[in-house]
């Protein structure tokens, strides 16, 4: 039930055929996650292809964010392997692991901007720490990244002075500071009005198209999932494992699994 | 099904809520139209509960206990019906009562016939699914029930496990701190210099008024008590010795440390704890920036630098406080008081005070940062972290004061 072959491989109008040959950016192999003794998810095996918008979806509390914490190097899996460009993340010594972790950028649910610093300083910090650029260059890059997410004039603001949607955008700018290979978004549309949520979705697509960055989006927002998802995995909170992978629109219409169809159709059966 | 005050005109003001239990004489045959076939052959084992009056949360409601006792007395009861013809109005007070009654009946194997209840109330009851069944479905509430029934032995065991875990955490924190310090000494630690200056300003310069005020007052108190005692022997001039030595050796450092614990240590715990809640620490970690270097190290450095300086300032103001009492009440001249102080205090006394202050500063910073890093992910946890930071700091300052006094004596510094 976990194999991608679960879905018909052909005949889907919205499937990009080039994707089949795409390289695997991140792969999970039979990963099991626990907090203490509490099982969160197990038996997770799926591939995230380069350049895709990959959605990790499922009901509230099913462990979506925990999966993200594992892939981004914050929570060690109890079993299984996380492969980043064929390198097993959790089998590396800590020093090399952090170097690999820096190839990821993460936008946290609330933005998680460092509240004692301005937006420009937030974006600049990773650059100060990990590049040999001088202060003026860093300032320019920080301004450029803020402009990319539509916050060109807000560099001098503190996180507490701007709205929730702007904070998320600034979080994206910071996540992109080091030009990561993969960008993670934890619930991008949570707590946003429909228009801001839509604009954030558009931003994700624009950035993917222009930079070729792989996007991993944690979400339970159906509009957003169907609008941006190329590929996805569905996590179930009751059986505590993944139930399906594949293009979310196709899962909605053709999945054999009742929970997946129910979730993607807002609990209503389609006629 | 008469609800609302209008139907209640024969009951002048809506009476107090009541639930009367009566055996059901008209059980079989002439039962309510909605009674189903099952209840028809229940015979004399049925009963009716009459709800009357106003069942609203803001009024006193009858306790279920009386009804429970009645039900137990009627051991053979198999079916329960409800009559609400005299019910004035109701809200969730009645719904909760009936839901609890339903659970009770379920346990005793009594069938509850809900048809006599208002339609709205029946819908509400259907929503909660008869109380317990839904909890069992979600499987979460059950665990909590077990948790709250913990015995003394169980709590004691959990406390011991907690103690081991927290000792482990403190050791890990200490170890990581040493690694961060080593990287700092090699000039490889990652933190922002501007942040360090800001912390130095906030914990140092901004603390001058409160440290000054408390030290001056404590100096005055020492001076006043000393003066009263020494005047009996006619050696009032020794107030200067008493205040000077007391302040320089111990009180200056101790006052500074306790003010710092309440002011700066608590702030550190709250800052770092809030960062934990906002995932700001996670954001640092994913970038490969160690929060130990980035957040803890500058705070430790700032307090290790600033606490001794503040202690010197506290010493000076303490001596001034003593001098104020000595010159006004004690009748000494300021010059005489200061010369006497100068002759009493030697370098080793100052060294004791400064070493103590440095140790206390490290303790305050470490407690604040440790509790902040251990903070859970809620607003309540930040409050606990702050409280715990101050308590931890004060406990360890007291222990350190005792240990240092013995050490100074052993190395001949006192």
From TrEMBL, chain B:
<keyword id="KW-0812">Transmembrane</keyword>
<keyword id="KW-1133">Transmembrane helix</keyword>
<feature type="transmembrane region" description="Helical">
    <location>
        <begin position="385"/>
        <end position="408"/>
    </location>
</feature>
<feature type="region of interest" description="Disordered">
    <location>
        <begin position="1"/>
        <end position="41"/>
    </location>
</feature>
<dbReference type="Pfam" id="PF13466">
    <property type="entry name" value="STAS_2"/>
</dbReference>
<dbReference type="Pfam" id="PF02405">
    <property type="entry name" value="MlaE"/>
</dbReference>
<feature type="transmembrane region" description="Helical">
    <location>
        <begin position="294"/>
        <end position="313"/>
    </location>
</feature>
<protein>
    <submittedName>
        <fullName>STAS domain-containing protein</fullName>
    </submittedName>
</protein>
<feature type="transmembrane region" description="Helical">
    <location>
        <begin position="319"/>
        <end position="339"/>
    </location>
</feature>
<dbReference type="GO" id="GO:0043190">
    <property type="term" value="C:ATP-binding cassette (ABC) transporter complex"/>
</dbReference>
<feature type="transmembrane region" description="Helical">
    <location>
        <begin position="206"/>
        <end position="225"/>
    </location>
</feature>
<feature type="transmembrane region" description="Helical">
    <location>
        <begin position="351"/>
        <end position="373"/>
    </location>
</feature>
<feature type="transmembrane region" description="Helical">
    <location>
        <begin position="237"/>
        <end position="261"/>
    </location>
</feature>
<dbReference type="GO" id="GO:0005548">
    <property type="term" value="F:phospholipid transporter activity"/>
</dbReference>
<dbReference type="InterPro" id="IPR030802">
    <property type="entry name" value="Permease_MalE"/>
</dbReference>
<feature type="domain" description="MlaB-like STAS">
    <location>
        <begin position="53"/>
        <end position="129"/>
    </location>
</feature>
<dbReference type="InterPro" id="IPR058548">
    <property type="entry name" value="MlaB-like_STAS"/>
</dbReference>
<feature type="compositionally biased region" description="Low complexity">
    <location>
        <begin position="31"/>
        <end position="41"/>
    </location>
</feature>
<keyword id="KW-0472">Membrane</keyword>
